[in-house]
Write a structure and sequence with these properties.
261 residues; alpha/beta; D-Maltodextrin-Binding Protein, domain 2; 2 domains; nine-stranded mixed β-sheet; 11 strands; 40% helix
């Protein structure tokens, strides 16, 4: 075979091989400040977006990120229309069908109250008789429902968006709001609600990337997770989050072994 023919043969072969091995990942996330939101220019922005893009760049993957309402984002990945969803907390139901990344950000759920309320939340008895607002259905509302099952003498007022509970709390239509702390602070700033304060944490949790293995090859999930661990140890993840005044979650002891499963 002549040299020119050989070069042409290689080009033709590569044109067939590239699509088979190129990584194309699609992600759904929600407008959840301060973690993800639309910029003034209309692009997905925030620490979760920056981390996703950094990992995709590391593994040379073509990644597409779309913002949806939370139920739509969750539905898209569950129906295997997109590869992954972020940020998402773990629970037993999700672990049955999602494969998770190492923990990305550590945060907490807790209670917000009116400033004139002197409560310093320590345990569920502190909210006896309260009407508590929460966004749901969600992992947040599931966490509040768990408290409810353990002690039934408070009431849950669930709304399908994060803002409603805080607006109600501001005018005292509910006695408290159960929320992610960072999301709550961001909403107070966005809604300019100055008569609400954080009363204290209920539990700490971590947020993850979740992948649907029905659509996403196991090797791709492994590569994504291995790249995240590499960027974590290099300091890149901390550098990204520092811009948003956040800290990365410590890696779980089994994070490295999980990337090889």
């Amino acid at each position: 075979m002549k040299k020119g023919q050989l070069i042409l043969f290689i080009i033709v072969i590569e044109s067939f091989l590239t699509p088979a091995f190129a990584m194309h990942l699609s992600f759904a996330t929600q407008n959840l400040e301060p973690f993800s939101y639309l910029s003034k220019e209309g692009y997905p922005s925030g620490p979760s977006i920056d981390i996703a893009n950094a990992v995709c760049e590391e593994i040379k993957a073509d990644c597409v990120i779309d913002l949806y309402p939370w139920r739509r984002a969750y539905y898209e990945v569950k129906m295997a229309r997109v590869n992954g969803v972020f940020f998402i907390g773990k629970n037993p139901e999700r672990e049955e069908w999602l494969k998770f990344s190492p923990p990305i950000i550590q945060t907490e759920y807790g209670f917000f109250v009116n400033k004139h309320n002197p409560i310093a939340y320590k345990n569920p008895i502190d909210i006896t008789g309260y009407i508590v607002g929460v966004f749901g259905p969600s992992n947040t509302s599931a966490s509040l429902n768990k408290i409810k099952h353990e002690m039934s003498d408070f009431y849950i007022d669930m709304e399908d968006n994060d803002e409603s509970g805080f607006r109600k709390l501001s005018v005292e239509r509910v006695n408290a709001v159960y929320s992610n702390r960072d999301v709550g602070y961001s909403l107070l700033n966005k809604l300019k609600l100055e008569n609400i304060r954080y009363a204290g944490p209920h539990r700490r949790l971590s947020y993850y990337f979740g992948f649907n293995p029905q659509l996403t090859p196991t090797r791709w999930i492994q590569l994504f997770n291995q790249a995240y661990v590499k960027l974590f140890h290099s300091g890149k993840i901390r550098e990204i989050l520092k811009k948003y005044h956040m800290e990365p979650a410590p890696l779980e002891e089994n994070s490295l072994s999980n990337t090889k499963n």
